[in-house]
Design goal:
Blueprint lengths: L5 H15 L2 H12 L30 H12 L7 H15 L7 E3 L23 H11 L3 H8 L6 E2 L8 E2 L10 H8 L3 E4 L5 E5 L4 E3 L1 H8 L3 H10 L1 H16 L7 E3 L2
Antiparallel strand pairs: 1-7, 2-3, 4-5, 5-6
Helix pairs in contact: 1-3, 1-4, 2-3, 2-4, 6-9, 6-10, 7-9, 8-9, 9-10
């Protein structure tokens, strides 16, 4: 049994989610902490490296994540024994469930990077204006397969792009704080027209709803391997939830062994 009171942490995170409606950015924080992993040399992965002023926190792909870190900081200070990597991962799974998504297994035991010298080089996170080959290069490097890629892409069912952070602009779905399979439904059921964000970045818009998709999103509908999986998730939310929970746990645990499950 864990010596950490995760039930209390959960209640504190839930209170934050209710007050600030910040679920999507908490998921993004955990995702980007973990998504630097390289399965070949075991570098990167979830180890709280964005807490330093230099290194990964300065990447363009991580713009705005200081907001998530600062929102969580007062809660984390109450539980100083919990590594940042564990804390960020736990906050994310609480956020997924809070917004209506699946219960994701959480296991503790990650260790934080000691200092910024342990940060990896930029370029390990996905670029939204690329296609299927780029997605595979990023995710295969972490040890994922096509099914994992399509399931994890479903995190875009919540949140929005902000031009001052990514250059892209708008929410993916009409209800960006509801975790369901709307993302996949919209991919197939809406007409996406080429557009440009206010920062000049290429994206695809659905004018009637004010929603948008990125090139990496639409790749799920055109790639021969991705498309059947995305179509299945558009028709079967239960299948999406099951596969997302499995893939997100795998993402959050990249590079770590001997973790201990926490009942939450």
């Amino acid at each position: 049994m864990s010596s950490v009171d995760y039930a209390a942490i959960k209640q504190d995170v839930l209170a934050l989610l209710k007050e600030k409606n910040c679920g999507p950015i908490l998921i993004r924080l955990s995702w980007h902490d973990a998504g630097t992993f390289d399965v070949k040399d075991k570098s990167g992965g979830p180890r709280g490296a964005m807490r330093f002023e230099t290194g990964e926190s300065c990447w363009g792909a991580n713009a705005g994540l200081d907001i998530a870190r600062n929102l969580l900081k007062p809660i984390h200070e109450k539980y100083p024994a919990v590594p940042h990597a564990d804390f960020w991962a736990f906050a994310a799974v609480v956020a997924v469930e809070f917004m209506g998504g699946p219960h994701v297994t959480f296991r503790e035991g990650r260790k934080d990077a000691a200092d910024a010298s342990h940060c990896v080089s930029d370029g390990r996170l996905p670029d939204g204006d690329k296609g299927a080959d780029h997605i595979r290069n990023i995710f295969y490097r972490m040890g994922f397969d096509d099914k994992d890629i399509v399931a994890l892409s479903g995190a875009h069912t919540v949140g929005r792009c902000r031009p001052e952070r990514s250059g892209f602009e708008g929410p993916w779905t009409a209800e960006p704080f509801v975790f369901d399979n709307s993302y996949y439904k919209d991919l197939f059921n809406k007409e996406w027209k080429p557009a440009t964000s206010s920062k000049g970045c290429p994206q695809f818009n659905h004018s009637e709803t004010g929603t948008m998709m990125l090139s990496t999103d639409l790749a799920l509908t055109t790639d021969a391997a991705f498309s059947p999986l995305a179509k299945q998730y558009s028709e079967n939310q239960e299948a999406f939830f099951k596969d997302f929970a499995t893939a997100f746990q795998k993402l959050q645990e990249l590079g770590w062994t001997n973790l201990t499950e926490v009942q939450w």
